[in-house]
């Protein structure tokens, strides 16, 4: 089953054509890298997959939902089925780690104090951050903050995770730990599409890789 399907898709940013005539299929359980220089369209492609950038031509389907001229309420419904991870973590600085995750849960309809508390503990255990629940973001390292961001992305048990430069602000060793964690999550049946410019990561954790360049998307061979 294709969790992502693009056929003859053009992606614009503020009326500027960023990527043209894209075709791409991503199946359940795949781990896909998007590589390319800054400004090549990696982030724009990811944004189109979660409805941040609207697509007006071609065919674009994510988790069986067409995103061509999609209505706003359907975008919100789709995003509840996705996990999205950003380079800058986007944690709320005035809330504890536990409350950061709780905020997302309540925003997406979770109810029941005990249920929420148990789920938060389980999520933090998955990313080995269970002892940091009462800490605040500024008390954590960059790698720890990204682990929390990954836990937050798993709140609604998404089938598809979109990660935009998740190691961009991390040192090499911490980057490896984060990618190892993402691969572990992928091996449990999750589909992950990750934008990166870090070829060392790709060499250490090889998988299907596409390059954004000259407004096009091309698969490049990696040694697996």
Give the SSE layout:
Elements: E1 2-13, E2 16-27, E3 31-35, H1 42-49, E4 59-62, E5 65-66, H2 72-79, E6 82-85, H3 97-107, H4 113-126, H5 142-153, E7 160-164, H6 172-186, E8 191-195, H7 199-204, E9 208-213, E10 216-220
Parallel strand pairs: 3-8, 3-9, 6-7, 7-8
Antiparallel strand pairs: 1-2, 1-4, 4-5, 9-10
Helix-strand sequence:
EEEHEEHEHHHEHEHEE
**What's the story with the biggest beta sheet?**
6 strands, mixed
Biggest sheet: strand arrangement: 6-7-8-3-9-10
- CATH H-level superfamily of the largest domain: P-loop containing nucleotide triphosphate hydrolases
**Cα-atom Rg, whole angstroms?**
17 Å
Choose one word for the global shape. Answer: globular
Remind me, CATH topology of the largest domain? Rossmann fold
The name of the CATH architecture of the largest domain is 3-Layer(aba) Sandwich
Helix content: 25-40%
Decide which structural class fits the backbone: alpha/beta
CATH class of the largest domain: Alpha Beta
| Count of the separate structural domains | 2
**Helix count, per DSSP?**
7
Which features does this protein show?
alpha/beta, 2 domains, six-stranded mixed β-sheet, four-stranded antiparallel β-sheet, 7 helices, globular
Summarize the structure.
The chain has helices at 42-49, 72-79, 97-107, 113-126, 142-153, 172-186, 199-204; strands at 2-13, 16-27, 31-35, 59-62, 65-66, 82-85, 160-164, 191-195, 208-213, 216-220. With 224 residues, it is an alpha/beta fold. The chain has two domains: 1-81 and 158-224, P-loop containing nucleotide triphosphate hydrolases (Rossmann fold); 93-156.
């Amino acid at each position: 089953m294709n969790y992502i399907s693009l056929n003859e898709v053009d992606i614009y940013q503020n009326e500027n054509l960023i990527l043209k005539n894209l075709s791409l299929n991503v199946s359940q359980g795949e781990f896909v890298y998007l590589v390319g220089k800054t400004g090549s369209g990696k982030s724009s492609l990811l944004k189109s997959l979660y409805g941040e950038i609207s697509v007006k031509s071609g065919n674009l389907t994510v988790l069986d939902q067409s995103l061509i001229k999609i209505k706003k309420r359907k975008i919100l419904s789709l995003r509840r089925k996705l996990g999205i991870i950003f380079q800058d973590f986007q944690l709320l600085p005035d809330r504890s780690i536990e409350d950061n995750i709780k905020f997302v849960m309540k925003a997406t309809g979770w109810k029941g104090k005990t249920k929420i508390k148990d789920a938060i503990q389980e999520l933090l255990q998955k990313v080995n951050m269970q002892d940091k629940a009462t800490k605040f973001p500024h008390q954590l390292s960059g790698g720890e903050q990204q682990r929390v961001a990954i836990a937050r992305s798993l709140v609604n048990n998404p089938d598809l995770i979109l990660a935009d430069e998740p190691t961009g602000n991390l040192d090499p060793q911490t980057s490896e730990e984060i990618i190892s964690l993402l691969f572990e999550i992928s091996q449990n049946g999750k589909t992950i599409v990750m934008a990166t410019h870090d070829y060392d990561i790709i060499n250490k954790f090889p998988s299907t890789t596409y390059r954004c360049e000259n407004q096009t998307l091309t698969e490049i061979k990696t040694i697996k």
